[in-house]
């Protein structure tokens, strides 16, 4: 769907989605397990949206995204358990450290295509190694326990149902921020960059700068998600932030539909549910994921969003929704 | 005396085992429409890539309006008011017509994250007006939501032109603007280039269509094997024995 700068966020579809998502925990209140699952999905939805921005829209192949998720989680865990930092400060620090990690990685934007993708993947692997091996800092494979529940405005957010609203607020803020960014000159530049870098450069776009900005913004998001995960579960360990999570995040974007924000949310939900169901397979679940990724790219390159778009385009449209074209 | 709008001093580009552009001196005065002609492989497009910064020069200097830009990046040269188009139009096929043209605004106003988050609506309305004006100037319908990939070849060329023109470049490089166009489309193009000149933009164009070159260009520069072999008015160049030899010495591509 063509995007232009003049689009507004509050469409009927967005409003309906916000109301539905706000009502979800009330509907699921009877089952603590479902609330737990919902909260996990919300954290991964934040990550999938961040990856959709950098990889889906910008075409920047960030394959080590889970490593930055880990930077946020570990920063928050270390500062709150060992240094007694309050949640808001630890949360901000988590974002700052994740951005700093991206700054360290940023020189690789000079690499092209496959080399760049490989470098990001390796950077993610190095971070995973740090989480596993630097025991003095990260407790190694044991990770951290007893990360306190966040205290906000004098209230401790302990109830998972309440925690959902904290996650929901973060997710909504992120969604609006990315929507705004995409519907701006900067968004046009990053979407154009994915299609033709040469034409961008001779049109006055500093491609290197746009790529670095994308890496930094998406890392800040990953850091925030990491912090929220740590304070939600009270427990973190290295595998959560390893390459298999990076692959799962990539799956969320591809399955949901590249260059679709709602697609990333749906992809996150579907993949998290699949992970819950296939966790009995242990290590073999990675094989299942790999095969599924290839099949999806081969047979449904536009993802679920493309599938849904194809179906709704054929349905009669109710008059109260107005004409379909919203551009510009 | 004002500085030339575009000046190259002994500019060269050496690829492994091949000198594509060999010590070319060029001085294009403000307001000129300059033609660059020469047989295939003469180094014309390489010269454009050197001027726009896609290639780093092996030797020589490049100046825009008197300012040395030899070491400047392509986007910095665009900001220094240099625009260009390509032999095969380089549009963004999966972006809308609006977005394609709006990308050109980056030359005058580099997009930043801070502006994106501030998201001022008045700015965006202003941009909409500029995009519509650029499309109108390039004789394209204001079909803003249409995908660029769905446009015809000739429309894509004019879309690319609108993108290059929206920031009002001081110097515009056109790489074979008439290639692949039919007679009626070429007539439109000729009128357009005339209007571009009237707006005060200096135009440098590579073209094989001699009718267009002779009709539009006050002065013509002839390249062969990367070297400048002749320069002058259409009549002077046409009578130059080296030019005749360069074209007639080879059977292909002789339109003179």
Please give a handful of descriptors for the protein shown.
A: 328 residues; ABC transporter involved in vitamin B12 uptake, BtuC; two-stranded antiparallel sheet; 70% helix; disordered C terminus; B: 256 residues; alpha/beta; Rossmann fold; 6-stranded mixed sheet; 4-stranded antiparallel sheet; globular
Can you give a write-up of this model?
Chain A has 14 helices and two strands, in the order H-H-H-H-H-H-E-E-H-H-H-H-H-H-H-H. Chain A has helices spanning 12-28, 32-57, 65-82, 87-105, 113-133, 135-138, 160-182, 185-195, 197-202, 207-233, 243-256, 261-278, 285-299, 303-314, and strands at 151-152, 155-156. With 328 residues, chain A is mainly alpha-helical. In chain A, helix 8 crosses helix 10 and helix 11 crosses helix 12. Chain B has 256 residues and is an alpha/beta fold. Chain B has two domains: 6-81 and 169-248, Rossmann fold, CATH 3.40.50.300; 92-152, no CATH class. Chain B has ten helices and ten strands. Chain B has helices spanning 44-52, 74-79, 97-102, 113-118, 121-137, 153-165, 183-198, 210-216, 234-239, 241-248; strands spanning 6-15, 18-28, 33-37, 59-64, 67-68, 82-84, 171-175, 202-206, 219-224, 227-232. Chain B has a six-stranded mixed sheet with strand order 6-7-8-3-9-10, sandwiched between helices.
């Amino acid at each position: 769907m063509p995007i232009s700068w003049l689009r507004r966020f509050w469409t009927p579809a967005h409003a309906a989605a916000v109301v539905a998502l706000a009502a979800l925990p009330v509907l699921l209140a009877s089952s603590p397990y479902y609330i737990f699952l919902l909260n996990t999905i919300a954290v991964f939805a934040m990550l999938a949206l961040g990856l959709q921005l950098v990889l889906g829209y910008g075409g920047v192949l960030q394959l080590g995204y889970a490593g930055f998720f880990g930077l946020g989680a570990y920063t928050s865990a270390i500062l709150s358990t060992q240094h007694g930092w309050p949640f808001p400060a630890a949360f901000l620090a988590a974002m700052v450290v994740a951005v700093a990690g991206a700054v360290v990685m940023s020189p690789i934007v000079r690499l092209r295509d496959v080399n760049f993708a490989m470098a990001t993947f390796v950077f993610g692997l190095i971070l995973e190694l740090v989480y596993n091996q630097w025991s003095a800092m990260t407790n190694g494979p044991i990770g951290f326990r007893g990360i306190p529940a966040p205290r906000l405005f004098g209230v401790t957010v302990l109830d998972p149902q309440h925690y959902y609203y904290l996650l929901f607020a973060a997710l909504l803020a992120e969604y609006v921020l990315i929507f705004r960014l995409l519907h701006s000159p900067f968004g046009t530049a990053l979407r154009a960059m994915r299609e033709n870098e040469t034409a961008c450069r001779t049109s006055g776009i500093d491609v290197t700068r746009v790529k670095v900005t994308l890496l930094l913004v998406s890392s800040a998001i990953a850091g925030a998600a990491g912090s929220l995960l740590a304070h939600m579960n009270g427990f973190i360990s290295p595998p959560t932030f390893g390459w298999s999570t990076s692959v799962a995040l990539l799956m969320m974007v591809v399955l949901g539909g590249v260059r679709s924000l709602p697609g990333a949310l749906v992809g996150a939900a579907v993949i998290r549910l699949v992970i819950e169901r296939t966790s009995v397979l242990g290590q073999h679940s990675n094989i299942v994921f790999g095969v599924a990724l290839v099949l999806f790219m081969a047979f449904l390159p536009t993802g679920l969003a493309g599938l849904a778009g194809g179906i709704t385009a054929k349905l009669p449209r109710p008059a109260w929704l107005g004409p379909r074209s919203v551009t510009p | 005396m004002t500085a030339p709008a575009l000046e190259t001093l002994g500019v060269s580009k050496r690829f492994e085992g091949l000198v594509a552009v060999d010590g070319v001196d060029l001085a294009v005065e403000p307001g000129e429409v300059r033609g660059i002609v020469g047989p295939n492989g003469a180094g014309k497009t390489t010269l454009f890539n050197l001027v726009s910064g896609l290639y780093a020069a092996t030797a020589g200097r490049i100046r825009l309006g008197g300012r040395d830009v030899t070491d400047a990046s392509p986007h910095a040269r665009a900001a220094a008011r240099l625009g260009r188009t390509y032999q095969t139009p380089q549009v963004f096929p999966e972006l809308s017509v609006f977005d394609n043209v709006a990308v050109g605004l980056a030359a005058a106003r580099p997009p930043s994250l801070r502006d994106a988050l501030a998201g001022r609506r008045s700015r965006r309305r202003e941009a909409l007006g500029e995009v519509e004006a650029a499309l109108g100037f390039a004789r394209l319908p204001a079909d803003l939501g249409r995908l660029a990939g769905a446009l015809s070849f000739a429309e894509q060329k004019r879309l690319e032109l609108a993108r290059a023109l929206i920031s009002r470049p001081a110097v515009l490089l056109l790489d074979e603007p008439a290639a692949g166009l039919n007679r009626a489309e070429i007539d439109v193009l000729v009128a357009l280039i005339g209007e571009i000149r009237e707006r005060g933009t200096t135009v440098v164009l590579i073209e094989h269509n001699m009718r267009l070159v002779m009709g539009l260009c006050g002065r013509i520069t002839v390249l062969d094997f990367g070297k400048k072999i002749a320069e002058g008015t259409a009549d002077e160049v046409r009578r130059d024995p080296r030019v005749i030899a360069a074209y007639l010495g080879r059977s292909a591509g002789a339109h003179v």
